[in-house]
TrEMBL record:
Domain Pyridoxine 5'-phosphate oxidase dimerisation C-terminal: 210-250
Keyword annotations from UniProtKB, A to Z: Flavoprotein, FMN, Oxidoreductase
Cofactors that this protein relies on: FMN
Organism name: Polyplosphaeria fusca
Name used for this protein in its record: pyridoxal 5'-phosphate synthase
MF annotations from Gene Ontology: FMN binding; pyridoxamine phosphate oxidase activity
Domain Pyridoxamine 5'-phosphate oxidase N-terminal: 68-197
């Protein structure tokens, strides 16, 4: 009688056992966190809304203004908070940081910073492109923006600069942003020197190296969280004829 040969498996093809999985997972510092989920072991499900093309304004800046207003009404914490991403050339190395969007107009999204010494300034000088990402947890929404950048004129930057409290205006002059300091004392000394420079002056001019940068959008995506990670993603793309809106697969 012939007997079927017992199949053999190599170590590379042998299925992992539960103990192997446990050992592998134990080596990870963080593995599959579930955040504030009420379902133990499973990620939070998004179910607060839906997004349809017919709901959108023709212009992405008008649509953003609508969503931003709704975020404020929903008491989203600091909805102007945004991640600004840039990338230097020729290396292509990206960098990102959290900043505040301070203005929105029909041209685009404006942030303010030091544009002489900061890392983002160096990136923008070699590659005048940027991306923005807003995340509004309370309404389960995300907005992604990609576009080219342009500096605001000093007169326009002065308008916003004048709204800042005096110590923040002094700080803009005093801080060589992103540059190495010998210690906190060096920064405090620079602040003291600038305070003496503008002592008795209510009107402080905007620093020539500081001001607004506008991200002029070429692509804007509005993202509404849905269950099972089947999110609604609607993307505006700038064309010669105007804005084209498409639905993306999640």
């Amino acid at each position: 009688m012939l007997h079927a040969a017992k199949p053999t498996t190599s170590p590379d093809t042998q299925p992992e056992s539960a103990s192997t999985n446990t050992s592998t997972n134990a080596s990870k510092l963080i593995f599959a966190p579930t955040g504030g989920s009420t379902d133990p072991g499973h990620a939070t499900q998004y179910e607060s809304g839906e997004l349809h093309i017919e709901d959108l304004f023709p212009s992405p800046t008008d649509q953003f203004h609508k969503w931003f207003t709704e975020a404020v009404a929903a008491k989203v914490y600091q909805p102007e908070t945004v991640t600004l991403a840039t990338a230097e050339l020729p290396s292509g190395r990206p960098s990102a940081r959290v900043v505040f969007m301070k203005e929105l107009d029909d041209k685009g999204f404006v942030v303010y910073s030091n544009w002489e010494t900061s890392k983002k300034a160096s990136d923008v000088r070699s590659n005048p492109q940027a991306a923005l990402t807003f995340w509004w947890r309370e309404v389960e929404r995300q907005v992604r923006v990609e576009g080219y950048v342009e500096r605001l004129p000093s007169l326009e930057s002065q308008v916003y600069y004048d709204t800042r409290i005096r110590p923040s205006r002094i700080g803009a002059w005093a801080s060589p942003q992103s540059q190495v300091l010998s210690g906190r004392e060096e920064l405090e000394g620079r602040v003291k020197a600038v305070e003496q420079q503008f002592e008795g002056q209510d009107k402080i001019p905007v620093p020539p190296f500081w001001g607004g940068l506008r991200v002029v959008p070429e692509i804007v995506e509005f993202w509404q969280g849905r269950q099972s990670r089947l999110h609604d993603r609607l993307r505006y793309t700038r064309t010669e004829e105007g804005w084209k809106i498409e639905r993306l697969s999640p």
